[in-house]
Structure formats: structure tokens, C-alpha cells
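Per reviewer request, we include the raw input and output of the structure prediction for the construct analysed in the revised manuscript.
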Amino acid sequence: MDMTVVELSRWQFAATAMYHFIFVPLTLGLSFMMAIMESVYVMTGRDIWRKATLFWGTLFGVNFAMGVATGIVMEFQFGMNWSYYSHYVGDVFGAPLAIEGLMAFFLEATFIGLFFFGWDRLSKVGHLAVTWLTALGANLSALWILVANGWMQNPVGSKFNPDTMRMEVTDFVAVIFNQVAQAKFVHTVSAGYLSGAVFIMAISALFLLQGRHAELAKRSMVVAASFGLASALSVVVLGDESGYVATEHQKMKIAALEASYHTDPAPAPWTVFALPGPDGGAPSFAIQVPWVGGLITTRSFDQELPGIEELVDNAEERVRRGMIAYDTLQEIRADGTNTAARATFDEYWPDLGYGLLLKRYREDVGNATPEEVRMAAEDTVPDVWPLFWTFRIMMGLGFFYIAFFAVWFYRASRGWLDTNRPMLWFAFVTLPLPWVAIESGWFIAEYGRQPWVVEGVLPTFYAASGLNFWDLVISLTFFVALYSVLFAIMVMLMIKIIKAGPQDKLFPIDRDSDEDFVMAALPATPATKELGS
């Protein structure tokens, strides 16, 4: 495989995924806060809460539409750019995606239509149920997507079938309740709730700074401050759980995040700051806090946190076992009745993916030299320093938002929401920061898994389609340009909605101007003249 083609395929998927995940967190966050606001409206009957639900719901709708447009393209790329991935693991990976489309996305999309157009057609309680079901659908979509992604991080409940040359499901319950998937789900949706709370805080602060819609802004800030504080605490606590699960199943990723090249005595220290050595390897300078790293990652005083060098040695042994698995697979393909080969393959197949790492260096895996085996083992180390710093940016922003929402929760409880203009400006300018943290988190999750597209099962370079260089350059340029234009349109549309402010109706209609618009669009005929009269 041409590694330039592989890298371009990775860049294209990364670009579309990063664009897509600009919209998903806000959809998750706004959906539940809309439901909370409408619940208050139904319980109190105060029209200001109806206006708040309509206003934030309109912004939610624009964001949801962009999320759908960008998400569909991602799924097409599995067949276009990653065809061997689709063949190899499609029986496992495709099932959660299909369930997401049939159960969660259709649920969400259907009830979004009822949310927008059912205000005057449904009872208050009926419309409130629609809003809560919209929020539920958004979160169910995230659940099934993260079940699929969690399987890529920790491929449980499946086995390679040498007769079909595919991974197949052996225990779908294990796929659903995968530790990694569940930890990723609660951490990811909490980050989405946080981004929604920050968005409402920022726009409400802008209204107060402008002296507009103060009643709606203050009430929205009360909801956002409460919801945001709970979300910020959840993000940090559940992020810790996600890291603990990764320590069990993705030790190399954790070692890279900590720039831990050597195994430290238990409990390992936590590195606050470090500088890479002259060759970009082990740190030349580091500031460490004793014991904290081991307590966070292993939750014990006596369990070691393995370093990169030790993990490479372990990977080398698995590559050698993978060579045996690969050779016996060839024997099974040549003679399907070879029971001795099948017995050997059943023992060694979990390391088949490590044997496939050798495909980067030679076609006949079984004849790999010791040097090639070592190079394949060293390929299991991701780029350490981008992961090291990205993780600290994400973690720092998580703790920052705990303090941020704690302050605003206290101010809301005292009725001090509009008494300090610098604080309002600060709330407004922090608007982009949740997306910095969220995109950092996805970078850590996906880049930290390299060189695997499915951890320990399928190398990334082996999963790509055989496209040519210019196909990828043209499509990558097209997607980046198109998504940039769509993003600019979405931002301009949301700015227009924010400038217009809350409305009494979701789609206010001026009947006369509406009729003039319709008549102007119709051809001038006797029939349309009669219709106009």
C-alpha cells in the first residue's frame, strides 16, 4: 500500500470527522436544555419559557441540519476510502451503525419535525413529550455511534473467521456493554452538555451586554449555570473513568499520553510538564507529581504503569505469534479440512493483527527478519508529544469549566447575573473553548490508537482502499472547501437568528407578504390572476 494514499485517506476522514463533531456536541447539549425549559413552561404557564424554548430550539435546528449533512458523508467514506476495513470488520461495525440509523436517528428526525411544526397542533404536554423524545433520540444516536467506535478501541464479542476472512460477532451483548464504549459514551455526552451550557451562557451574556431580552437571558443563564456545573463535574469524573478503562485495554495510548518511556516503580508519578529529548524521544526535562499518575490510571499503590519500551517488547512477542497465525491461515485457505492448522489458528488468531503489521515491510509475513519484526513492534508507538500536550489542554479546560460554572452558579443564586460587565464579556469570549477541548478529546482517542484502525486487529495502512493520489487530493480539497462554506453559512444563519432575538412564533408569517411572495413566484396566467384576486 502506498503510504501517501493512506495518509491522505486519514486526512480526509479526519477533516470530515472534525467538522462533523463541531455540530454534534451542541445538538446534544441544546436538546436537553430545550426540554428543561419547556418543562418549566408547561409547569408554570409563563410565556417567557416558551419563548426561550423556541429561540434555543431554532438554533438547535440549524445545528442539527449541519450535523446530518456532515455525518452522512462520513459513512460513505467507509466504502469509498476504507473498503478493506468495511470488508474485514463490517459484520461487527455495521450493526451498531444500522441500529443508530433505524432506531435513534429516525426517532430524532421525526420528532424534530413535530417539535418545529407541532406548537399549535399538539397539547402542551404532548409537545413537551416530543421535545424530550427529540433529546432522547439525539443521545441514542450518540450511544450507538460510540458503541461502534468503542469496539474499534476494544474489539470484544467478536472473532476472526478463517473461512470468510472476516471478523464476525460472537456476543452482541458484549459489543453493546463494552467497557470502553460505555465509558466513552458518558464522557462524550457530558462534554456535549457542557458545550450546550457554554453556548447558552455566552449568547445570554451577549444579550445582557447589549441590553436586549434581559428577562429571557437571565432565565436561560440560570438553567445553563446549573446544567453546566453538573456537566463540567461529570466530564472530569467520567473522563477519569475513561482513562482508567484505557489503562486496562490500551496501555500504549496511556504511556504515550504520559510520555512514559520507562516503567516507573508503583505508584507512577504524573507528569505536569515535560520537554522532548534531542531526538524527540524520552523527556529531557520534566516536572512530576509523585504517585498521582499511578493512582489515576491504576487506582492502586502497587500496580505498575508500563512504559513505552516495555510495551514495545511485548508487542514484538505478539508480532512473532501473529506470524504463526498468518502462516496457519494460509494453510487453512489452501486446505479447509486441515484440522491441525485450525487448532493452531484458534490459539494464535488474537495476534493475527500484529502479524499484519509486517505487511508494511514484506508480503511474505512468515519470512520476516528479526529487524523487520522489531520495526513492526516499534510501529505500535503513536506520536507521543502531540498526544502529551493535547491531553493536557483538554484536561486543563475541563477543570477550568468546573471553576467557571461554579462561579456563575453562585452568581445566579445571588441574582448577580447582570451586575458585572467584565464577567459577562468573559462568559462570551469563552464560547469557542469547549470545542477546543472536545476536538482535542477526539484527537486523543483516534490518533492515540494508531497504528490500528481496530486495536490489535487491523492496521490502519492495511484497511485503506486502493485509490490513486489525485482522487484523494481532489476529494479532500472538495470536502474541506465545501464544509468550510457550509460552516460559514451556518455561522451567518445563527448570527442572524441571534440578532433577531426570540420570537413569539417559530415561523412568524406576515400573511400579505406571504401571498405576494407566492404570487410573484407563479407564472402570469389567467388562472393565477384569478387566484390572486
